[in-house]
Write a structure and sequence with these properties.
The structure is a homodimer of 591-residue chains. By secondary structure, chain A is of the alpha/beta class. Helices cover 38% and strands 21% of the residues of chain A. Chain A folds into 3 domains: 101 residues, no CATH class; 283 residues, Alpha-Beta Barrel (TIM Barrel), CATH 3.20.20; 129 residues, Double Stranded RNA Binding Domain, CATH 3.30.160.270. In chain A, α1 runs parallel beside α2. The longest helix of chain A has 24 residues. The radius of gyration of chain A is 29 Å and the shape is elongated. The interface between A and B is large, with 135 and 133 residues.
Chain lengths: 591, 591
Amino acid sequence: MTPFLTKLARFRTRSVSGGEGKGEVNIFIGYQLPNQSKTEGEKLMRVILNDVYLREGAQVEGAVMTPEDQLRYVQLLLEGGIDSIEIGFPSSSPEQLADCQKIVDLVRKWEGKKPLLSGLAIAMKDSIQAVRDAGCDVCHFYIPTSNELMDAQFRDSKYGNTKEDKQNWIVETAVFMVKFALSLGFQKVEFSPEDAARAGRDFLCRLVEAVIGAGATIVNIPDTTGLRIGNEFGDLIAHIFKTVPNIQQAVVSVHCHNDSDHSTNNALQALLAAKAAGAEKFRIEGTFFGLGERSGMTKHEAVIMNILTRRDVMEDDRFIGMELGFNPMFCYKIVHFIAHALGMSVPRQWVVVGDQNALCSAGTHQSIEIKAGEQGSESPYYSWNPAKFGHEKGVSIVIDQSSGRKALADRLSTLGYQVSAKQLSEIYQQVMKLSESKQGRQVSDKEIVAVVQEIVKEIPNRMLVTHCQAIGGLGTIPMAAVILQVNGEPVQKTAAGDGPYDALMKAVQLAAEYFFPVLLQAKVVLDDWQASAVSKGQETLADVYTRIRLANDGNRIFSGRSTSMDTNQATAQSFANCLSWLLTALENSAK
Amino acid sequence: MTPFLTKLARFRTRSVSGGEGKGEVNIFIGYQLPNQSKTEGEKLMRVILNDVYLREGAQVEGAVMTPEDQLRYVQLLLEGGIDSIEIGFPSSSPEQLADCQKIVDLVRKWEGKKPLLSGLAIAMKDSIQAVRDAGCDVCHFYIPTSNELMDAQFRDSKYGNTKEDKQNWIVETAVFMVKFALSLGFQKVEFSPEDAARAGRDFLCRLVEAVIGAGATIVNIPDTTGLRIGNEFGDLIAHIFKTVPNIQQAVVSVHCHNDSDHSTNNALQALLAAKAAGAEKFRIEGTFFGLGERSGMTKHEAVIMNILTRRDVMEDDRFIGMELGFNPMFCYKIVHFIAHALGMSVPRQWVVVGDQNALCSAGTHQSIEIKAGEQGSESPYYSWNPAKFGHEKGVSIVIDQSSGRKALADRLSTLGYQVSAKQLSEIYQQVMKLSESKQGRQVSDKEIVAVVQEIVKEIPNRMLVTHCQAIGGLGTIPMAAVILQVNGEPVQKTAAGDGPYDALMKAVQLAAEYFFPVLLQAKVVLDDWQASAVSKGQETLADVYTRIRLANDGNRIFSGRSTSMDTNQATAQSFANCLSWLLTALENSAK
C-alpha cells in the first residue's frame, strides 16, 4: 500500500485573534498522520473500506443520483483511494446492468490505485451471471439466515420441512453458488448471511465455514435490522473468529445498519474483535453520509475519524498498527457532493464533516482556546483536526462579542471582501452591536455580509438600480428596462431575454459594461438565483440572492443580495451587486 | 408518574398492496408500549431526560432560534412531557437573563406536568446569583477537571503551585459554591466536573463525593470532547458508582458529545452501568436533532428509541423496568420543528425521525415484507415502529415497479388527491413507465404529483392562465393583468399589489372568484412560495412551487407547481393550481 499522506508534524491550523489588543494567538492541534506503525517491524492490520452507496444507498427513495452524478461520485471515490466499491445489483434490471458496465468502464480507465468492484446477486445462477456480465471483479451474493427472514422467505416445503432441513438447504445452496461463481472466473467471491446478527450462532458458523471451504474469499456479516448495541455485534464477530476453523482464509467484513444509532460503534467493536483475533485484514462496509435503508448504515467518515484519531492522536494501543487506504481529506468533499447531488443538505452538526466541527462557538470554550493559544499549549477541545478531513481551514473561532478586529478581518477576507482599515473599524462596530443585540452570540457569515454591504457602500453602491421595469407573460417578448446610476450619472438600457429576469440581468450587464468596459473581458455566468419570501403572507419582501461565476477565470464566484417588495428590483440590484464586487476584484488585480 | 401511552396490543400499521391482483396485505409490527414493568412489584428505574438545547445547542453559530421560536420549542417540550430543561446561561448577558425569565414564565403557566428548570453558571457567586434571578429551580455550575483544561484555565499560581494544590482548590471552590447556591434557596444544585472523561479518576471521585457531601443533588458527568468509545464511558460511570460512597444520594447524569459518533452508545452504556449499580433514577442530557458544539451530542430521539425498543420489542432484561417520562410521539415533530426553525433540513436517513425510516424501499425487502404480510407474520425488517415516534403513518411501501394500484391509490390519497378509477389507471400506467425509465426504482411523491397534474388535467386545467403580464420596478405601482380561462371562457382581471407577484396572485384570485363564487368563502393565505432555476445559466426554466393555507378551515393546505421560462407565468399558474385543488375539495365536501 502506498502511504496516502506524508508524515506531518504538529502544525498550526490558522491564526486567530484573541480579542482586541491581545495580538495574534494560535490554536495548536497535535495531529499526525503517519501510516507507519508505532514500532518498527510491528505487524500491520489493513482496514479495507468497501463503499456500498451505489447498491445500498441508491435503493432508497429520494437517494438516487443521476447517472452522470453517479460517475462523478465514483471519480471522487477513486481520487480518495477507495479500496472497493459495490457498484450495484446487475440482475435487478437491464438498466442497472448497463449502469454497472459504465462504472466498470470508468474504473478500468483510471490510472491510479484501482478498487475491487463487486456486484450484488441473489443465490440464483442468472443473478450471479448478471454480475459477471457487468464485468465485476467480485461476485457478492446473499441468503437470509435469521429465523425471522427464513420464516418469510423459505416457508414453502420445497426448502424442507423442519428448520434444520431449511438450514441444510441454505448451506448446500450457498456452497453450490460459491462454486458456480468461481466457475465463471470471478477473482473473488463474497458471501453474506443476511440478518446474521439475528441468526442462530451455530448455524451461522457452520454456514460461514462451508462457504469458505467452497472458496468464498470474503464473508460479510450484516446487522441487517440495525438493532445491535454495545458489545453485542463485536461479540458475534469475536465468536465467529473463535469458532470457524478456516476463518483466516477469508477476509471478514461487516455491514452495520444504524436504526439504533450504533453503526459506528458496531463496526469498530467488530474491527477490534478481528484485531484481537489476529486478522491481517478486515473490511468495513459503509457509505459516506451514512446513506442506506431506513436510518442508513456505518458512515465512512466516522470510521476513518475514529481510527485515525485513536491511532495517531490518542495513541490507543488497540488501534496502533492499523492501516487505511483512503485519504481522509476527501471525507468533507464526498459527503457534501452527495448531499448536493441528492438535493439534501449536510446538517451543521453531522459527525466529522458538518460545518460546525470547524467552528469554536461557545464563548466559554473560546476563552479557554485563546488562553491555551497564548500559552502555546495544545487545543484543549479540538484534539482531532477537522482540516485533516477536508474542512477548508482548521478550527475557526466564530465572530461574537469577544472577537477582535483581526479575527473579523480574517473572516472578511475568507468571504472575499477587501476593505480599508476605516471600513474595518466601522464593520467591527456594527458587528459588535449586532452581536450584542443577539445576546453576545455569534454573528453569522450571512449577517456579516449584510453589514459589509451596508458599510462598504462604495461597492454595492457603485451601481445603483434606480429604476427597473420588466415585462413578461405568455404571448409577450420578455423585456426589461433599467436605469443604472454610477457616481450620480444614470444610463438607461433595455434588453430582451428568455424571461423577465433574464432580460433584467442582461439590461443591467449592458449598463454596467457601458460604465466599466473592463467587464467586457469577464465571461459572467449565472451560477445561482434564489428568491424567497421573507415572511408568510402575500404582502412580504422578496429576498433575492444571486451568484455569478466567471467562466473564463477559474470559476471565481461573486455573490449579491438584495431585498425589496419587488422581486424584479431585488433581482436587478443583487445582480448589480455581484458585478460591483467583480469589478472591484478586477481593478484590484490590475493594480 | 403517569403512563404516557396506553398499552397497545400488536396493531396493523396500514394496508399496502402487494402488487397487481394480489389483494391487500399488511405489515405487522409487534410493538407495545406499556409503561408498566414486566413483573408485578419489580423495582422501576426512572430515566430522566434533560433537554439542553437552549443552553448547549443555542451556543452554536447558526443554531439560534428567534425568541418566538424558542418559546414555541419549549411549548413542544412541555406537551411531550419533558422531565427537565436547561434554559440558558443567565450570567452571560442581560438579554440571556431576560430570555430565561420568559421561559420560566411560560413554564409557570403550563398546567400539565412541570419540568425542572435549570440554568448554567460558572463557579462564581455572581454567575450563580444570575441563575437565581432568572427564577430557575436548579442551579447548575461547572469547573474544569481534566489536566488539559486545568492547564489552560488554572495555570496562574493563585490557584496553587502543584497539580495537587490546584485540585484541592477545585474541590474547595466546588464545595463552597454548592453551599452558596443552597443558601440562595435553590430547590436543587447540580454540579458538572467539566471534561470528566479525561480527568484523573481518583480526583474526580473525591470531587464528586465532596460536592454531594455539601448538598449537590445532581452530578452531571460530561464527555466534553466526545472521544470516548465502546465501554470506556460506561466503565467510568460504573467506577463512580462503585467508588463514591454517597453516590446514591444524588441523581447521576451524563452529557455525551458526539465527535466520535458514539454519544448514543455512551449514554446507554452509562445508563446500563447505573442500572447495574442499583440506581433508582438516572439522567441523560441531550438535545433533539443532536444539536450542540461541534458534532453535537446525544440525541433524545435515539435514546428514547433504544430504551423503548429494547424494553418492549426485544424484551432485553437489562432494559425491563426502565421508565421514561417523555411521549415518543413528539420525537418526529420536535426534530422537524427545530430543523425548520433553524433553516436546516432533516436528512432522510437521520436516526428514528428521518423520513426514510418509514419507507420500505429496497425491492428485495419489499417482496419479503409483502410475503410476511400475506402470511400474517410480523414484519421481518421493521421491528421498531416509526409510527410510535411520530411518523404520520407506519411504514409505507414505496411506489415502484412492483407496486400495485391499491398502493398507488393509497399514496394519492395521502397526497390529498381524489381521482376517478379511470384516472387511477392512467396514473398507474404513467408511474410504472416512469419507474421503468428509472430502472425499476422508486417514484418519488414529487414525481407522482407531476404525473397527477398531467393526467388529472381537469383539476389544474380547470383554470388556465392563458395570458399574464405583471409590471413592477422602483417608482411604479406593481400591477398585473391575467386572463384566466375556465371551460374555454376567458375572463380578464387586473390587480395592484405590493409587488408584481402579489398583484398576479390577486388578479388570479379575482378571476377565479368570478367563475367560482364558492371561493369567496375561503380565506386563502400564501403559505409558501419558492422559485428556483431548473438548471444553471441565464436561459433556464423557473420552477415555481406555491402553497396556500386556508386560515378559516383548520389551516388545510393545497399546493401547486408550474414551470415556465417566465417566472410570472409559473407563479400565476401554480397559484391557479392551488385554487383548483381547493375548489375541488370544497365541491367534494359539499356533496
